[in-house]
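seq as requested:
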Amino acid sequence: MNMKSLRLLVLAGAGLAIFAAGVASAAEQEHWRVFVADHSAPTVRAVDVKTGSVLATVGVQAPAALEASRSGRTVFAVQSDADRVSAIASGVALDDHGDHGDLKLTTPYLLNAVSKGARPVHLVEHDGKIAIFHDGDGSVAILAEAQFAKGKLAPHRLVTAAPHHGVAVPLGDKALVSIPNPKDADELPIGMRLIDEQGKPVADYACPDLHGEASSGPLLAIACATGLLVVDSQKVEPRITFLPYSSSLPEGKATTLRGAKSLRYFIGNYGPEAIVLVDLSAPEPFRLVKLPARRVDFTIDPEHSDRIYVFTEDGFLHRIDAIKGEIVKSAKLTQAYSMDGHWRDPRPRLAVAGEEIVVSDPLASTLRVVNPETLAESRSIDIDGMPYGLVALGGSGEIH
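struct tokens:
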């Protein structure tokens, strides 16, 4: 073999090696990280769920409530006591290429852009936009997630009749904003007002004691004292209807809602020791599920929407079958966390990270990673401070 042939063979072998390495690096992998807000300190930590390592520690201005964007690229830190909403780049990017998906992981970091306003509380993402309601002055900022990444915010601002504990929902070129109680703005709102892009009223919808909202696909539900205000945004003009509570339900109301992703239904709290399942397509939309103790937190598995997880004050975690409407598994997980005391006392919160559940245990400075089938703890992750609010982001894809 002459030197030219040998050189060609070496180059060909190198090409095969590079190709093989490319194939290996493109193998599908699954990664999940959980963002953890401290209960009392202005700190958010990003934790690798599998290894337990802290990927980043982000300092903010006040203890934060966390909301993840639907894209998964941004975690919003709502800091009511600091009059601001900060944005954290999650470092998780999932790109769909039809026949496969790419997963890109980078280190999370705090973005420079900050939305400022008087006491932001509710942040709602809908129709590709984000609405931040400011309880301090009743104003609303509507903007796009991409503006935070670009570092330049250009919010569309709206003003309601009075400062109140309210909410706003973007609906295409319109928005729904809460209507304050005209007798006492410190009381809960009395309804929602549909307004156009210029802020002019289009229609009002009654919703006494309004508190709590959630989305399930194109459907949005808003909790009222007497039922749910339901918004269907599948068409150009949103269809807004009122669904009264069933006469079969005991006296009570929902004030917190969660929406399923792969199925179309909602769940809400209903009294201290029950949750209510809401299936808008069923002849009887409401089903009550009683709990063995007072409820602390609850969530729906985003990938297995027939699974609902509820944590109760006795330290037990429960799995509810959404189809059957009953508890099918329970397991003791932490010490008891009494619901007596202030509503914001440090108590566990839930997040689903792929095929695992993450439960914050603030008094033990621990995250508990739980098997969703057995509800047994598979491992624990020690966290400085008091881990409280949780947001889980991740997925599977090819990593190049």
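Residues 154-290 form a domain with the Methylamine Dehydrogenase; Chain H fold (CATH 2.130.10.10).
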